[in-house]
Amino acid sequence: MHKRYLILNFIIIFISAFIAGIALYIQQNPLIDFAVFENYDPGQASILLDDQDQEWGRFELDRRDPVTLTQIPDCLINAFLVTEDRDFFKHQGISYRGILRSIFANLKSGRKVQGASTITQQLVKLLYLDSQKTFTRKIKEQIAAILIERQFTKQQILEIYLNHIYLGCGIYGVAAASKRFFGKNIQDIQPHEAATLAGVIKSPAQYCPLLCPLSALNRRNLILQQLFTQKLIDQATYDYAKQQPLGIITYDKATLAPHLKETIRTFLEAQVGKKQLYSGGLIIKTTLNQNIQRLANQQFNTRLQALRQNLQADIDGALMTIDTKTGEVQALIGGVDFTKSKYNRALQARRQMGSVFKPIIYAAALQQGHNFAETEIDEPLELTVNQQLWQPQNNTRDFLGQMTLAKALATSNNIVPIKLLLKTDISAVVRLAQHLRLTNVVNPYPSLALGCVDVTLKEATGAFNVFANGGTYIEPHYLKWVKDRWGHKIWKKQIDQEKVLPVEITSQVAKVLEISVQNFLKLFHNTSYKTVSIGKTGTTNDSRSCWFAGATPNLTTVIYIGADGNQSMGHNIYASWAAFPIWLGLHEKLSEKNTEFPVDPKLQTTYINWNTGVETTDLENPETVEIYRATTS
To answer: Which listed CATH number (3.40.710.10, 2.40.50.140, 2.120.10.30, 3.90.226.10) goes with 292-630?
Structure first.
């Protein structure tokens, strides 16, 4: 066995020497273009602008900050050399000692634990070759390494290498990594930070301190030990360095709206290509409002974490805020933790809409001559649907008898909208829903009155916004245009927009939805929130999903909460205390203009008893509500 290993080692050494001889022979006819070293251009990053033309993100693969070798401290150079190539200043591109050391280490462990590529070979692979582990590629790599060593000095090779090495998270070069990891210029790096940087090279996915801090810390300490063993740092420096924390800094901009940024990245990769996106210097105009996004992040994350703790469940959710009049997305949250899941629950998750769908039922009924003073009986109901008995219930499991349509919508009664749907042309409801871009509404069943239709949060936001802006559907959108580095517009968003409902109808629905918000404010004993607002809760069967859709004349925000597997979150989970507080917490902190929703001037203000529908002047009666009614001709 040992004899066979010795023969194998001899063959490997012989082949390496043979390759080196070939390389020296063809040095006058190099296989590579050396101009790539001096003329390398990483391109320009593409910039994401917010609604105020301020940068909030970038797309770049080559985040470099080139420095000269004289600017790089010795502790960093030593950390890279002891980790990657101890014989760098002795070999001519290929380290035979390194090859032998690697062979013996791998044979001893019975598996590959150590490589033999020199820094020069790594540089060749970085700039010229792919990463396929083939014999042909290895030969080319060794030949090119020898040729490079004959044309460039060791200092030049090391400088280029340290400026080009990949250090995880789209960061190339030690200077850029120093600023991103530690917030420091490269000249100020300390030995423990130098060891952290050098430790990343073995596996950026495993040892990048931004992604895997514990693994990065263990790897750093191992390199510090190697530096001490090689007498490149003294005992005092070693003892001090290994006691230091990683010291990684975080940036708000890096995590401001990660799900939105990822969505834009994927879309633009398909539109303009990866090369153009990451190095073309594009200017990408988005609709994001950084202030609203930060406030939304704070409210959403704080309250979701509290809900998770209270429910002892791994629930998640999403939020979208749009400009009521333009449909521009001001804030988007696709989930609690982007680092754990890139799944965008605002755009990808389809969940039953629940009672957030009910305003559509009432709007269709108003178009067919019904009005909010009209009364209906809330009572037990039995229906046969698909040859099965269906007995719908209210959330409270009780029935309240006579009530107006206004009370039924404001309190999210279930029985009344079912009856109303059966009196209405169901196909008209389906058509209206489809005009609102709820494309999954195709089956005209009575359960449609309870929102048994799967939608995304984006679709729900666009549909609900119609009641806040006077009947015009406008697609929620987060991109406006893209310009190239010379300022030429190469892409522009074509906005989907349609007048879906007359303002006469949306005015009446919005007035009742104002009552709904006022009821919730009373429930939470909130007397400070004064902005005129409309809103609707939605809680689906078995508490699988909770929704709150709310709007002011300026902003519409819709929130969804649920489990990713669409399983029940537990009993008695209601949107009124799960989702509504997030909406209220956000809108309380926004400085919104105190304006009014669009109102049809032909409508008249009427006060009615919300049980009997009879007009009244008793404004002190808690059963008196204000509605809009069409004037009779």
So the answer is: 3.40.710.10
